[in-house]
Write a structure and sequence with these properties.
108 residues, 11 strands, mainly beta, 0% helix, four-stranded antiparallel beta sheet
Length: 108
C-alpha cells in the first residue's frame, strides 16, 4: 500500500539508514481531524509508544515490516505530544531525538 501526504493526511516514515533507525519527520505538525499514517520501511517489526493516550486514543501501535497504519487525530488538545519508536522489539530506539506530533487548533 502506498500512502502519500495530502491536505488532511500526514506521513511519518520509519526507516533504516546506515545501520540507524530513523523517524522522519522528527516533528510533525497537524490539526485535529488530520490522519497520520505511520509507514514501517525498516524490514522488521516496529512498536510506537504514545505516553499521552489522548493523541490517538491508544498508547501503543505495532507495525509489521512494510505495513502502513493510518491513525486519526480525533480530539487531542492543542500542543506537543512526544512518542517513542522501538525497533527489534524494545531493544533499539529509532533516532529523531524524541519525535513529536504538534497539534494546532483549526482557525475559524
Amino acid at each position: 500500500m502506498t500512502v502519500t501526504a495530502d491536505q488532511d493526511r500526514r506521513v511519518v516514515a520509519i526507516f533504516k539508514d546506515e545501520g540507524a533507525y530513523i523517524v522522519a519527520p522528527g516533528q510533525l505538525i497537524a490539526k485535529v481531524g488530520d490522519e497520520v499514517c505511520f509507514q514501517n520501511l525498516t524490514g522488521i517489526s516496529v512498536t510506537i509508544r504514545f505516553p499521552n493516550k489522548e493523541l490517538f486514543e491508544r498508547d501503543e501501535l505495532t507495525l509489521d515490516p512494510g505495513e502502513d497504519k493510518p491513525e486519526e487525530l480525533r480530539n487531542p488538545q492543542a500542543g506537543g505530544y512526544s512518542y517513542n519508536v522501538y525497533c527489534d522489539g524494545k531493544e533499539k530506539e529509532a533516532h529523531a531525538s524524541m519525535p513529536r506530533v504538534i497539534v494546532y487548533r483549526k482557525l475559524a
